[in-house]
Design brief:
365 residues; alpha+beta; flat
Length: 365
Amino acid sequence: MRLSFLEPLYAEPGPFASVYLDTSRNVEHPDRAIALRWERLRGSLSRQGSDRALLNVLEEVVGADTEVPGVHGQAVFAAHGTLVLDGELPRPPEHDSARYSMLPDAMPLVTQHVPEIPYMAVVVHYGGLPTAETHGWVTLEAETGTWPASTVTPGERLHLRVAVATWHRTSLQLGHQLDEQARRSHADAVVVGGDEWACNVLIRRLPRTLRDKVVRVGGRTPTDTRRALLEPQLGGVFRGRMAAHDRELVDIFIGRRALAGPMTEGLAATVAALQRGQVAALLLNRLPESSLRLWAGSRPTQLALTEAELMSFGVRAPREERADETLVRALVGTGAELVVVPESELRLYEGVGALLRYTDPGTPS
């Protein structure tokens, strides 16, 4: 999983206000409900030390995602009186929260992006007989996205209307067009729903590489929800899966571990590799608990297990910070990826390991 979407968070130093709240609009009087939630969070931030200017900046944005229908949440970050990042959450947070701290509380946002599977969704509608009759129309809509975040931030959508008499012939051309779009988005899967006859015609004419990625789904296929195409079906397709790119990284890690290649395992060795900017991808069996602490300085690579270690590197006045916040900053600051891999797929020593960009005599074992 690439974390480049978090780069704006670390363009300026802290302290940061990090806000997560339920902004669902499937309840009676949603604006009132959101305002009440925000009032509680505003009071919490004020008690933690946020000034009025920062609170006012947040207030302008909280609940402004009125164009997103249904169940969802919002993550908002601000620092020094300026909005830094405003993101939609495909699921409301379990608990509304507000934190004022030197590092942004980014891990809950990362959690809602995992496993970040790129896909294409295709809906084909046709209301006539299952033949290429002379009259009638087939409509096709296609959309690429990254599950689960794209359920509330859908991508650009392709709309086509084709005379049913030409559907067999046109499907061949459409197949190549969809294949090009899927390649650009590096789609792991093509989720297809809609009329059985029209879908079958299209699927048979897709290029083989794209046809092998097709997953057929049933159920209702509305296209006017202002959310992702086939949103209700996407969870059933992708829940419990890893992105193909992440699985490749896991396979590389397993190979390197067997051959004593450029990798490391365990918390101490992995933190040492992050200090040196060696980590290409951090592998975790589970996301760190908020109770775990690391010591941090002002730069992304300034992190350590102990205060003494960090001071030995010349860091003045190191701070004890939450490990999840410190690790996310280190990954974003060094351009490293994050892979969450179940223990059933790969059990890591102390639940953590890393693929390294390079090794040298100073690399910890």
